């Protein structure tokens, strides 16, 4: 057993969590890792690129192709293609702004907490509201279930194992 296992607020994250606090801490650690890797940013930028491609296709490829066909009534068709293409471009721009504002991997996870870490003594504590969602064990056909909600505090210092959770809404059952 390691030297930190006796400290309050420390959780062994390599074992299957059983308490609500452990579920919240594991969820927060997973969210922090995902945030650092930039997975959220990558997904959002990919979706924005798809919307931009659809907008480009409608406005700059399909609309001119349809207008080049002779003797075709074009009023509402070309107008609709143009409007839908512009809306797709607008959605792409909004997604990019949101991605750069909220999914930025350079931004820190959570809000700063005053005071030093009880384990390492550095002022690197951050906290965030977390909700656990996952598959019900043994019943994947039931779909995603919601679990406990609460506030998790993690130390940002590399190799510091401190983690604490306060459950605000326990899991049902």
Short description:
This protein has 173 residues and is of the alpha+beta class. It contains three helices and four strands, in the order αααββββ.
What is the strand and helix layout of this fold?
Blueprint: H1 20-37, H2 39-67, H3 75-102, E1 111-112, E2 125-135, E3 144-155, E4 163-169
Antiparallel strand pairs: 1-2, 2-3, 3-4
Helix pairs in contact: 2-3
How would you describe what is shown here?
- With 173 residues, the chain is α+β, with helices and mostly antiparallel strands.
- The chain folds into two domains: 20-35 and 109-169, no CATH class; 39-102.
- It has helices spanning 20-37, 39-67, 75-102, and strands spanning 111-112, 125-135, 144-155, 163-169.
- A four-stranded antiparallel beta sheet has the order 1-2-3-4.
- Helix 2 runs antiparallel to helix 3 (75-102).
- The longest helix is centred in the N-terminal third of the chain and has 29 residues, at 39-67.
- The model is unreliable at 1-6 (pLDDT under 50).
Core attributes:
elongated; 4-stranded antiparallel sheet; single chain; disordered N terminus; 3 helices; 173 residues; 2 domains; 4 strands; alpha+beta
Number of strands: 4
Assembly status? single chain
Overall pLDDT metric: 82
Global Rg = 24 Å
How can the largest sheet be summarized?
4 strands, antiparallel
- Distance between the amino and carboxyl termini: 32 Å
**Proportion of helical residues:** 40-55%
């Amino acid at each position: 057993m390691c030297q930190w296992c006796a400290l309050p607020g420390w959780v062994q994250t390599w074992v299957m969590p059983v308490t609500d606090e452990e579920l919240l801490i594991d969820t927060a650690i997973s969210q922090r890792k995902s945030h650092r890797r930039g997975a959220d940013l990558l997904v959002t930028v990919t979706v924005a690129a798809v919307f931009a491609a659809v907008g480009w296709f409608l406005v700059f490829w399909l609309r001119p192709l349809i207008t080049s066909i002779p003797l075709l009534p074009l009023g509402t068709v070309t107008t609709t293609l143009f409007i839908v293409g512009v809306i797709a471009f607008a959605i792409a721009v909004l997604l990019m702004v949101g991605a750069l504002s909220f999914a930025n991997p350079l931004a820190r996870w959570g809000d700063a907490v005053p005071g030093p870490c009880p384990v390492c003594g550095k002022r690197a504590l951050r906290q965030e509201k977390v909700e656990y969602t996952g598959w019900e064990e043994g019943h994947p056909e039931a779909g995603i279930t919601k679990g406990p909600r609460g506030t998790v505090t993690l130390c940002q210092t590399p190799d510091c194992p401190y983690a604490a959770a306060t459950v605000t809404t326990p899991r049902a059952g």
